[in-house]
Amino acid sequence: MKLGWIGTGVMGASMAGHLQQGGHELWVYNRTKQKAGPLLDHGATWCDTPAAVAENARIVFTIVGHPQDVEAVYFGADGLNSDRAGMDIVVDMTTSQPSLAKIIAQRAEPLGIDSLDAPVSGGDVGAREGTLAIMVGGKQAVFNQVLPLFELMGTTISYLGGPGMGQHTKVCNQILVAGNMIGTCESLLYAARQGLDLQQVIDIIGKGAASSWSINNLGPRIAQENYDPGFFVEHFIKDMGIALAEARAIGLALPGLALVQQLYIALKAQGHGRSGTQALFLALQTLNGDGSG
Amino acid sequence: MKLGWIGTGVMGASMAGHLQQGGHELWVYNRTKQKAGPLLDHGATWCDTPAAVAENARIVFTIVGHPQDVEAVYFGADGLNSDRAGMDIVVDMTTSQPSLAKIIAQRAEPLGIDSLDAPVSGGDVGAREGTLAIMVGGKQAVFNQVLPLFELMGTTISYLGGPGMGQHTKVCNQILVAGNMIGTCESLLYAARQGLDLQQVIDIIGKGAASSWSINNLGPRIAQENYDPGFFVEHFIKDMGIALAEARAIGLALPGLALVQQLYIALKAQGHGRSGTQALFLALQTLNGDGSG
Q: Does A17 touch chain B (CB under 8 A)?
């Protein structure tokens, strides 16, 4: 099938590669052409604008950075929604605003274009190995059409409901992570200050009723003072910001999430925007006057 | 061996039963005699005071409610530490203050008595099935002596260091749970308000990088509006109070934990002290004006 791909960062390049390996023809656009290199080497066609992708491909996938980038790709000059579009379906896989997903759906409809929001979780490893979880909102019939392509990129593909419901589910995921992270980092800071061996504590409390992916996977990095990403602090701040804005829009206060975002904002101010999310440990150390953060 | 057991609540009765089944002779005290019934039926000897237990048993285990109860059992009139004591070792398995564990150790030493702090996790099911995690502080040699008895009650038995270190590890466990619970409840409240199917969301986000025991085990109860305990709200408030007091004592601010405790205090004020900890969902609903909490 003739497919379009916009956004060839770490995640997008791997995901598009799976479509290519699945025998599909790709038209590709990215802000930095160089990052599309491997896809072009394997036969993909370069396009100078999103609009050029839309002219050639039937289904276009987008995965870019921030909601503003999504807006630019869809609605900017030479964006996907320009009147030259020949495509049938757009699929935004960026972790973006549920409300923007609804706007994309509303504006696409009069042009005869269907849309899906389909954010993912599973990180760069999941993207590379084709084991992502993909959370999809939009029309069920459109989901069914795109499903075989999703299956090339992920292993857990879920249809959640109308436009925005995929993004809402990703928001739920990130709210959950925020709680797990504050628990992990406060727990290990207490352990460190009381003179416990961090890895031993992780081995004990990481089983049973306190267990989480965060304590078992990021805890050991904290124990080793390894704050490499993983998942960037600044991207997590973006995701929590989307969650808080969407919650506020429906009159919903989430005090835990708000506190965690504040601490991450402080962490970024301390120069850790490009550290991994486990660096929250350093923000709590600094807060308590004993960190190098 | 001649063993003492003080505190035959839901946890204690099961744990003492495993020692009895292991062929040990038991001397038992509890505030409410009736709850010791099954142990007495199986040949345990009733004692009217903790001191009477200490007179007869070589190793005495205690698992009572609050730190004040621990103090009463050890230092009260007819307490364990009265001069009639013939015992060699005391083991407090209550989730209690690390600082109290140190005091018990200090006061026991001149009497020629060794002490361990050995709080557990795994709940009533773990107690019944003998699969508890037991976190032990005290002298290593004393730990080694008591280990065969711990092995009758639990499957993961860890030596963490000197007096109080078992309690400190349990504190780490509860700090971690606090974070996991706020994440779980805020995430599911957002999901509910956005019209998502809670169980479907749990099935998706409960795998991968957002997963926790809380979302996977308590999340489904929230989805079914089941707020039965499990683990009582009022006991969790006690545990978080211990954590915050110990942290404050060493000059350590834990803002996430403090916020979560406040929400649980509000939840108890709403009449949910004897609900399960997943009822935090109701406190957040009430906070947002749409609950029955």
A: no
